[in-house]
Fold these 2 entries.
Entry 1:
Amino acid sequence: MNKSVLLLLLAIAATEVAAALPADCSVTDANGVRRVMQPNGELLAAQCYQCHGDQGRSLGEIDSIGGKSAGDLYGDLREFKSNGKADIMSLQARAYRDCELYAIAQYLSTLPNQGD
Amino acid sequence: MDRRTFVKKLGLGTVASAAVAGTLAKADSGSAAATAPEPFEIVVVGGGFGGASVAKYIALWGGAAVKVTLVDSNAAHVSCILSNLVLNNQKTLANLTFPLVKAAEKYQFAFKQGAVAGMGAELNGSRFIALADGSKIYFDKLVLSPGIDFDFPRGMVQNGWTDTNTPFPHAWKAGLQTNNLRDQLKMLPGGGKARVVMTIPPKPYRCPPGPYERACLIADYLKNKKGGGKLFVLDANPAIQAEPVNFGKAFSGLYKGIIEYQPNAAVNAVSAAAAFNPRLALPQDKTINVSYTGALPANPIGSGQKFHLINVIPKQKAADLLFGTDFRHLLGGKAWAGVHIDTYQSLYDNDVYVIGDAHDSVQPKAGHIANSEAKVCADALLRHLQLRPARVMPDEAPVTNSACFSPITASTASFLTAGYRYNPALDTMEKIAAASGEAEQINSDNYKMMLAWANNLFAEVF
């Protein structure tokens, strides 16, 4: 593989990684400069623990969420947000920007897995 | 705190740049013990859902850079959440009692049992909380989570009446009054003869759905254990304040003929011939003076009518502690403490934060959201101490949530949930309509989820 093809592949890979970030992570600041938002996943994820247990470790019927894959968690949160239902989790998911849900999923995935 | 002390605690001069970068919390404590700065002293007053949670998260996120002490006059917290289930014998107070020393061990902060008598400062500027036993606890930052107290109607409180024998237990702080109210319900006459009143205070009050939930459980108890009876629900507000669809349905359907709901009804006074005696049948000796604003209900209650049981949930205000000489400035002349709502820092005192039921905001006064506020406050307080980098907006706009399950019968429940987000342009927390609502159905699944939710919340806090 020559160098220019390698660079092209790297550029495509980088684009794909960027595309994985939710679109609403992109914000324009007061000076008109576009930048990527960085929500505090640790703080936002802590707002899940009232129902899902400390560090996402649930004691009873509610799902444990600590240590699950970030992709699965984000997919579930997006599904809750957009499903049109009015259960607690669907309502709660609508409190957050996609970018925040993404940060929550990323943070929760770093916690010890508690099983289901 | 003076600047010299602040610099010393940050460890500037020895490990200066790390501190400024906001990474010092743990970075300089392990590597160079000889130069480790003194930890910031954080005192939290009030060991309920707000106070115990903020102590936990300041200790967790502050690490070795903070020393957190929780102060409460009681050795244990008795949860208001689920306490209406004591009334129908689904729970006991023991199930809802959480020793604070255990929470402190579990989440690594110190607990000191003691009544707060005041707040002061030494000549060098060091601030402290004074306890009734004469001891002082010094702080760099103070978080108050003292909850509520009451404005009682005339006749509700008298010398010689205790939590155990008062004929008028509000039971709006869980404890001995909860058992008293349970016992009075048990002593009501059967055969559909029981005549009961409960009153709902003007908003804001602790736990918006709570009074309606209690009305349902009392009505359920009358229906199933006492052959029916009459429960007048007198609401100082113009309408049901939470879950209006589900509570409305329960009042007019499930409990038709038992509950009579009367809005715009304010209680002025109550009277009883004697203290509650659990060994005697409950006498029909209690009266209530009510003012109706607007249209009179079909069966207005007059001062001549007598009832077996009157459960007044009194009008509420921030805890009495905040009306004391050393704390009154935090109220700014109001009934609730004024705070910067994105941090919970007092509007009137930069070293003091107020969270939970005692602060003034659109967020409901309840345990679940007090825990949510505690996390936002802990994060903000650590940023103010430069233990975390300054908050970036809109990336880190505070978001809080409220969720609450309400039993409607001994085996079914409803729920209420809401989300709130900080709006920097208006400097307020705003309710997010799309994230807020009540249960579509009253059912047994909600009842099971209520117990699962409460167990996780209890374990998260205590």
Note: The first helix of chain A runs from residue 3 to 20.
Entry 2:
Amino acid sequence: MRFLLRTLSLSYVRRHTAKTVLTLLGVIVGVATFSSIESAKGTLVKGIRSTVDRVAGKAQLQITMEGGVPEAVQEQVRALPGIRATSPVIEQIVTPEKGELGSLMVIGIDLLGDREMRDYGFEGDDADLDDPLLFLAQPDSAIFTRQFAGKAGLKSGGSIAIKVPKGVKRVAARGLLTPKGFSEAFGGNLMVVDVYAAQELFGRGRRFDRLDVRLDEGVSIATGIATLEKTLGPAFRVETPGKRGEQMEKIVANFVAGFNISSGFALAIGIFLIFNAFNVAVNRRRRDIGTLRALGATPRQVQLLFLAEALVIGIVGGLLGTLAGTTFSQAFLKMMGQTTETLYGVTSSGIVHLPPVVVLESLCLGIIASLIGAWGPALTASRISPTEAFAKGTFQARPPGRSGLRITVGVIALGSAILMALRPPFGGNPFIFTELLLGGAGIVLLVGPLTLLLLLGLVPLATRFAPVAGRLSGDTLLGNARRTSGTIMAMALSLTFVLGLGGYMGSTKKALERWMNDSLTCDLFVRASANFNRPDFLFPGGLRDDLQQLPGVKSVESFRAIRPLYQGRQIQVTSIEYNLLLERIKYDFTQGDVAAMRRGLIQEGKCVVSDNFSRRYKLGVGQRVELVTPSGKVSFPIAAVVRDYGSDQGTVMLDRSQFIRYWQDDRVDIYDVSVLPGSNVGQVRDLIRTMLAGRYPALVSTRQEFIAEITKALDAFYALTRVTLFLALLVAFLGIVSALLISVAERTREIGILKALGAFPAQLARGIVLEALLLALAGLVLALPAGNLFAFFMEGPLAELFTGWIMSHHYPWEILLQLLVALPLISALAAWIPARQAGKMKIVEAIEYE
Amino acid sequence: MLKLQDVTKIYAGKSEVNALAGITLAISAGEMVAIMGPSGSGKSTLLNLLGGLDVPTSGQVIVAGTDLAMESEKGRSLFRRTGVSYIFQAYHLMPTLRVSQNVALPLHLAGMATKEIETKVARALKEVGLESRGGHLPDELSGGERQRVAIARALVTDAPLLLADEPTGNLDSARGEEILQLLKRINCERGTTIVIVTHDHNAASACARLIKLRDGRVEGDSAVAGGVA
């Protein structure tokens, strides 16, 4: 085998370098996507975990509470038996004015009392806190890590501008941390400030984000947790830093798992490119295969020869893909980090390192993808009989094989997938996997026969517009059914994915936009934070009265959202003054009505739940939702169920009076301001800005601006579509280039004869360009219904399974338009090299070619 | 050595083609036999069946006591590796392999040790007079030389049966004569059974026996005057 690989295979590679490179690219693109996403994902998740661990220091337990831990709790905890020390902490991620320095994690701690918890590394020659008293006396004091200070060119005593909710603020470096332990958290991008200064800076009021606890020697963690839980009640969460890190890691890992779709897709396309390339290689080398078989090579030896070639391609492609992946991983980390910061308030900063396990996984994936792609063609090669191989033209002339069986199995697989999708979703991930497997197999099996049918219709049309080029391209495409359907299959699958994913994301966006238009109906929105999901500053509740006094203001509603855990999932609990809200919003009810909602929320202390909450937890009108509040567990009867897209995990809506009563927290995320008829919205906005200036951070947006900002945030979240679109176009390009290069090489003699008969190079070139266009068009036409089916599946059963949302289908016209522009350009570009090659062919050499 | 019993071969397709219509014949070990006939008479099909490249639709093809029709694909591959060697009209040399590598190919397939391969290849090349051309590519050789490489490749396995499909078909008369002399020498010196399919009367006259085919049937089977005894 080594001899055959060294001689036959290597010489084929040497003679067909371009084709080999294209085949390799299929593996490289797939593996690079996988390894970059995987390593970025790993760095993000581990970074978050490591930051939690490092920031925790010697703390054994951490106390948190939705909305923040009131200051008084610290004294209460400190007085308990078995508690050695407590330390309040505020954590906030900010960005320096110089954006290139990356996100900065601000840790607010009580510096004097915190030495029991964290080692700041002030001891030693290379670290120092200049003046502890000055540090505490000056509210702009901060300590930076040496690493960050070096990066920012910051010296002790120097200052740096950072963006905080109230605007840009300069903070002074009054000490530097030694790069070890605690100071290595968040990749070293750490800033330590006094916890009380942080309360003011980030609008925490008289609350901390958490309370770190160290137990007395001999007190077990279990005892500590039991004591604290008993004292504090169910509204507080008492857990070890490890558990908290795990929880954060889990939330983020679930989000980034979505990126696996892209890498899986890239690999699947890589498999098709390999399949295509090997199919053609078998075709081209059939005489060599025949000779080997005539000389006594067994079918197994022939199959192994091709699989060994695939193995080599898998190894080389895997290695190169892994290397290429490292260059994209940093960009992926940035993209993922920004989204997780926006969505979950956690992120990680640092340099992506390629862990050995990812290298190994990438390499294995490259090899497996390559072997899967080559398996079929290798099997075909092993079945070529010597007599068939020596008979000229029989291989190309042979029909693709049992198409009746293929169509039947394809229809059954696709039909089963559709029938399954029509039923309510069941079984979680195995259900999705089975659906995708059946649907994918159905499409793969049906694309071949459908391709031929489609081309039989398209070729006469092409011939009518371009008689010579149309006939030439049509003959080539129809005469090489295997190659043609292989190329179109890869293209159709990639475009199906793009249109399906685009359709799903478009539908989600459309549903959210419709919902926003219906529910965000006031004139002005007053926020303290740009982050919709995780506000980094909350207004005091009393501000509503001040706003209400302003001329031109009709009404002000105080919106507050918290995200507690409910049955292990992070749901949303929102509150607002519903007596005012129901005057301007019309809800879409799935259970109950507006009268029941008004009565239930305002008079009876009930709650209203979103449709997706109701589906997920199987709770409806008349049943109860039990929520853990600082006042204990409260069971809210459900008054109505409404369509709401505020949270993909479900929303529970309460009147503000109920929220304040049970959560004892009157802070506000957003003030919804409605202006009096005839008043100028712009003038009212100016009045609000003037009133809040210097007191609170304030982002005052009109309705249109507010909706546009949310839409922008959604677009950022759906950046994945753009990555996928790029991958799909790359695949289309690679697929067409490889198919055309092969087509020209195989038709060398035919092209020579045509030239000998007087064909112009331009005619031949036009034929090849038309061939490329027909390939792209056929791929797109087949992808249109398949993409729609995929989108329906994602919008229907999949969305219901993961979010409980039900949305109407929105066709991704924008993506289709982009494809209609991009595909012909890409096809023409892909045809350029093969067309030039054909034009330059020497007639005599071409005719002699075998 | 070789025995065909009522062998038929039908190629199925849009219209069936009866390539062989019940052939029965026997060839003894050490014989040098020519098979002649017009195009479409079934010569090449017969050779393919004898070489285990194809299987009959019905009947028996017994070579050295083994019915090839009953053998598995793997069994026929192993037979081709050691029991028979083939010379093709179009040579079927691997264009990217050097002459010596081409000759060594069947030995590599059989998994023979490199040292032994080198010895056998050198001997086979010497036998066909190409010992100095081992490092060349087939493209760098003349038609006659290419056919001699194909013969060396056939000899290197020491198979007792050598099948030649139009071995002189692509050569001029002088080069054709050279090849025939070489085959005769191999038959005489090694005792290799040789079956040649040919259109060339000159090639047929180099053999001791001539089998004539027409429409898939044996039309004549006779000794050749002055052929190899």
Note: Residues 173 and 202 of chain B are 9 Å apart (CA to CA).
